[in-house]
Design brief:
The chain is α+β, with helices and mostly antiparallel strands. The chain is built from eleven helices and five strands, in the order H-H-H-H-E-E-E-H-H-H-H-H-H-E-E-H. The protein has two domains: 91 residues, Helix Hairpins (Orthogonal Bundle); 201 residues, no CATH class. It has a five-stranded antiparallel sheet, with helices on both faces. Helix 1 crosses helix 3, helix 5 crosses helix 10 and helix 8 runs antiparallel to helix 9. The protein is elongated and about 80 Å long.
């Protein structure tokens, strides 16, 4: 596509077309903003020593946005992009001699992926949101939860805690497997690192029913939906950042969103540093689960840690017993008359 052709087609989508002074301001600010976003991406790659596998896709989109704002800005200034490009090349040719350097392409060898594993600063004392509630309504200070494939439901995994089922079996719920079935590692990480997880409370029957207001607001459906939404969003954030396997940091935008969505919940006091630790901990456990397929997640709310452990024979035996019992109940429901 020729530049002038692109410029005219881009102009058709300018929502400020009827207002020249304001439109020029919007296009100039938009141009600066998009360039700033690209600069921020490069800053993070240099800082973390990591170029995500999705970099070419995101860079292409960013350059396209820059080109659009440039085209609109040029149009408002009465500058034809074809003419500007030709004049620029002529000016450069009159100043610099051409080189024989190879034109870069996405297929060119890239620097080796290293990545930093930063020294994680110590978190403050563990948060306890349920100290004033009945013991049976509190999150356990330590837990060991087994996650393994359900032998009766292909493509699904089931969690077992204290020899009882912990939620329903999960699949990826997409056409191509992406291992989202193990995303409960995120919820367990929120519980262990933050001391907060409405999803954990729901799965473990730990809602604080001794206080109806807390039960409804902090442990109710909306809080659960917020946490599930965060897990889904952060899963996509992880996909775009190679699942954080190189030790890179979580973007400030993602951490800000975590705080915004929990601003009306008890988790509003959780800092960005704590959110980042919980997110990276969850992804570390998720990556190990994907590799192992069967494992035990061991959480310590006092130490604010969640680690993956090899499942013992008793872990796997308890998991199989629960799966067998749930399969028998499922068949009984199917066979029972309506």
């Amino acid at each position: 596509m020729e530049l002038d052709g692109y410029q005219r087609k881009a102009w058709r989508f300018d929502q400020q077309a009827a207002d020249h002074p304001a439109g020029l301001t919007v296009s100039l600010l938009g141009l600066g903003g998009e360039v700033g976003d690209l600069q921020t991406s490069q800053k993070k790659r240099v800082r973390d020593g990591v170029t995500p596998s999705s970099a070419h896709e995101t860079d292409t989109e960013a350059v396209g946005d820059i080109l659009w704002y440039l085209a609109i800005t040029a149009a408002r200034l009465g500058v034809d992009l074809d003419q500007a490009a030709a004049a620029n090349l002529e000016k450069i040719a009159g100043r610099w001699a051409p080189t024989d350097s190879v034109y870069p392409s996405p297929d060119m060898p890239q620097p080796p992926v290293g990545g930093i594993v930063s020294t994680a600063p110590a978190l403050d004392e563990a948060r306890i949101f349920d100290a004033d509630h009945l013991p049976e309504h509190r999150l356990p200070r330590q837990f060991r939860i087994v996650i393994a494939p359900d032998p009766f439901l292909p493509g699904r995994v089931r969690m077992v805690w204290n020899q009882k089922k912990f939620g329903d079996p999960l699949s990826d719920n997409v056409s191509e497997a992406d291992w989202y079935r193990y995303h409960d590692a995120f919820h367990l990480a929120y519980a262990a690192v933050l001391g907060w997880s409405p999803v954990f409370r729901s799965l473990g029957h730990l809602k604080r029913r001794d206080n109806p207001a807390v039960d409804e607001v902090e442990d109710g459906g909306r809080a659960i939906a917020i946490e599930e939404g965060l897990a889904a969003f952060l899963f996509e954030e992880g996909r775009l950042n190679d699942w954080f396997k190189h030790g890179q940091t979580v973007s400030g935008e993602a951490l800000t969103l975590c705080r915004r969505l929990t601003a009306q919940l008890e988790a509003r006091v959780v800092t960005q540093l704590e959110w980042e630790r919980a997110i990276l901990t969850g992804f570390q456990c998720w990556r190990e689960l994907v590799m192992r397929e069967s494992a035990a997640l061991v959480g310590d709310l006092d130490a604010r840690t969640l680690v993956v452990d090899e499942p013992s024979e008793s872990d796997l035996a308890a998991h199989h017993i629960v799966c067998t019992s749930e399969e028998a109940a499922r068949k009984a429901r199917i066979d029972s008359p309506a």
